[in-house]
Amino acid sequence: MLRKLFAAAQVAGVFGAGLLAMASPALAETTQAPLKDVHWSFDGPLGMYDQAQLQRGYKVYHEVCSSCHSMNLVAFRNLGDPGGPFWNPKYPNPNNNPVVKAIAKDFKIADIDPDSGDEIKRPGTTADYFPAPFANDAAARAANGGAMPPDMSLLAAAREGGPQYIYSVVTGDTPSAPAGLAVPAGKFYDPWMSGDVSAFYKGDPHKIPVGGVIAMPPPLTDDRVTFDDGTKATVDQEAKDVAAFLQWASDPKMEERKQTGVAVMIFLILFSGLLYGSYREIWRKVGH
Amino acid sequence: MSEHPSTYQPGSAIERWLDARLPIIRFSADLMSFPTPRNLNYWYTFGGILSFCLVVQIVTGIVLAMHYNPSAAGAFVSVQRSIMRDVNYGWLIRGLHSNGAAMFFLAVYIHILRGMYYGSYKAPREVLWLLGCVIYLLMMMTAFMGYVLPWGQMSFWGAKVITSLFGALPLVGKPLTTLLWGGFSVDDPTLTRFFSLHYLLPFVIAAVVALHIWALHVPGNSNPTGVEVKSASDSVAFHPYYTVKDLFAISLFMILFAIFVFYMPEAMGKVDNQVAADPLKTPAHIVPEWYLLPFYAILRAIPDKLTGVLALGGAIAMLFILPWLDTSKVRSMRYRPTYRMFFFVWILASLALGWCGSQEPDGVIIPGAGPGPIFLDYGINTVTWLSRIGALYYFAYFLVITPLLGFFETPLPVPDSLYTPVLSHPAGVPAGAAAAPETKG
């Protein structure tokens, strides 16, 4: 422990004395269980999103996650973009997509009435962004035991392992914590949550449980949602689908990126071949 | 330029008219016909690759600046919402720019190592080498400020850590940090001045690149043998011989570049940077981008902050003074097997330092062996001690090995002309080259 304090002091010295108080968490041992192995339709250089899965995932997000988590960077129209959950080639402009329009209309968006200047709520349009469930960060913290539910627009990109991590965490809450671990009231132990539980652990210091505590109660149960395509809504299915949806939310241009990539790679390989041929031809008579 | 007689013949009346007033066509033609050693290998294509990288960064950067909002409130949203989601092919332009920075550093490191291996820094090319070091320094500054602009968690905390380093300097430290920050912490003014400088510095780099190329065209290229060009048959015209070779190399480089841009655009980034900057929440593990990690390891290896900062600066300064540290008369390491061995160990030490920079300082090197006896706050079997050993070798290579080896080593025989080893190359003997072997003093 003393050595750790020395180390903390040294790092703090490097980072500037002003950071001293903040430098100690930098040395906390964050651990987590190895992520659960999931195979996704979007794995690999040619993998694309499974649209039915994105639609199911959107339903889980809408009916479960969105009561606490915002998704500030995503607009309703994005749902109908190419590669998105409700993309329909009949509506190249997603603002004309009837599914997207219907989804947007069900949301109440804060606005100012242009005639009276009063604050009003109006039905959403495809151009609006998903409204946040709480008025501000303080309200979000107050309603969630002091913890801030992270914004979901980039959640999959902001965690090592991306959708795998989300799948592991939402299926990973254990109702009974390991012996010696006193989980604080209102928190839950999750071996897949990247964190450090040493502060709550009273047992053998060499056997500190991996993982962290999370303020989110286990969010999914069997049949928590009813999938429109008749897929059985098990916890596992819901978790996979919402993780895939959040991966799309983080990386909505993946399909365009990978498709462009194929054309670019073919071009570059042919172009390199042509240049190599030119190089050989030009240098043919010159010793080097 | 210097001893390269112009062969340009104005072909028309208008070209003659222009040639008498602004000989810009002659200038370009002379660049294209510049005599270049015929034995340059693929390691010499990285100069061309670097020009390509600079153009890519400037072009994509100008477009990104059209959509970017340089404010603490708007930066993250303008990057992650406007550029990545709404701007047509914005993901591509940003992917090229952010991965392009890493590719730029990959290429510049190979270019620097090539210069070190073939002794390209030695007389009469010291100024060429110094200008290259200036470009590298400017690149590091530009890259660091560019990394701050997306205003994610790692942008913010990286800026905080690096700018705080200047605070260690005596007397000027505190006012300098305040000046860098534009206030008393990293905030809106810091972001806006970094944006301004990030837009300015690439053009300064372009200007120094022009000087670098000028300084190259006075003595001409070095080459793998280290023997200067002695006769006309030792060299070929830059165009088409090296334009085609450089273009082929650039094309291969673009394939590697495209693999990152299209298939793993975030592979070299940090996941923390996908979270908007939060001054109240320190990330668990603050690490710079991979291309700065060896210097970061040297900084952390030293317990005293000021000494650490000076060591970091000294590590870069070593490159600047290298031409005056090397006492050997032989240019290329091809003929210096002992020095070559020390050089490869130096590359390994630099890579090890890079790895150390990415690890926690008290991380254990050999698992299961325990931390070992503790000196200076850390056990021997820790990342900090590996960094210390690596840093010691890093400096010893420049300050002890390089100066002394020139007196003690026995180099291999150096060929009389750069063309001699070419002639022994069986496939490449041209019919008309039979007259070439005689060497001119």
Tell me, what is the CATH class of the largest domain in chain A?
A: Mainly Alpha
Structural class of chain B: mainly alpha
CATH C-level label of the largest domain in chain B:
Mainly Alpha
Tell me the major beta sheet of chain B.
2 strands, antiparallel
How many domains comprise the coordinates of chain B? Answer: 2
By CATH, the topology of the largest domain in chain A is Cytochrome Bc1 Complex, Chain D, domain 2
Q: Compute the separation of the termini of chain B in Å.
A: 22 Å
Report the C-alpha radius of gyration of chain B, rounded. Answer: 25 Å
CATH superfamily of the largest domain in chain A: Cytochrome c-like domain
Radius of gyration of chain A: 25 Å
Overall CATH architecture of the largest domain in chain B: Up-down Bundle
Total of domains of chain A? 4
- Tally of DSSP helical segments of chain A: 8
The shape of chain A is globular
Strand order of the largest sheet of chain A: 1-2
Alpha-beta classification of chain A: mainly alpha
Compute the separation of the termini of chain A in Å.
Answer: 64 Å
Approximately what portion of the residues of chain B adopt beta-strand conformation? under 5%
Strand order of the largest sheet of chain B: 1-2
